[in-house]
# Entry
Amino acid sequence: MASERTKFGHDTTTDEVLDGIDLGGKLALITGGSGGLGAETARALASKGAKVVVTARDLAKGEGVAAQIRAASGDDSVEIEELELGSMASIRAFAERFLARHDKLDLLINNAGVMACPQDTTEDGFELQFGTNHLGHFLLTGLLAPALLRAAPARVVSLSSRGHQMSPVVFDDIAFENRPYEKWSAYGQSKTANILFAVELDRRMRERGVRANALHPGVIMTDLSRHMVAEDFEFLSKRSPSGELRFKSVEAGAATSVYAATAPELEGRGALYLEDCGIAEVDDSEGAQSGVRSYALDPAAAERLWAVSEEMIDEKLEP
# Structure
């Protein structure tokens, strides 16, 4: 089995990653699970015995996914919870409900997000992509840290993107107050923040048994691309050496999330960036189509982002 696990790649599916793995007794929380990658991640984990809690902005849509998972896994304990990551109040209310019902959390998969959307702000006034993709998960993870620590060894998985290559975190102008808004730069900044968050979270929690990693799921047609138009797909295609996008199925797109959450070969490892069910290399070359930029793994930038994020949400998080 060990030799087979070295053959994972672009088209590896969730079920292939989980072959031979038993998740009985584990509790997993997946944000943004009402469709796409989140729904498949939840299904796959439940199929191996994990108890899953799925969050959704649309409870009716989320309940439909939960019903499908219950039917497929035979587990009636699948939970669906309302969560709006663009609202600090919603996050706090959800965390309070979750902790009242669950003492421990083994796997936290920060999956939800928005991409390349028009300029807008969250309920609390943060730039929409940074506020939703990073700050929302930053607060959520911090509030759930006690449950993660009680479950140690536990894992936190943050979905980033190859889009992080489009921009570092521009600390002097995160909210685009002094520069024109550009949706791909805003998205790239938020995805870099997802990686930096994993780096600093891992540093803070690794000695107590909680490890954190980030990943690129691949290019998948899901609701995440709802704001994209033909020009956006043309833009992304031009960034590819072949001149076209190489898409993944949803089952393959969720595989790296499942790999990050369960792979035995990642036990005791953190602050990594994963892609195609493996550890990515640092690549700062112009036009790189794989790998991770060094600025996204910079410990100093990660520590700075943590401090800036605490200031933005006006709360000290001490996991």
Notes: The chain has one domain: 4-311. The chain has a mean pLDDT of 92.
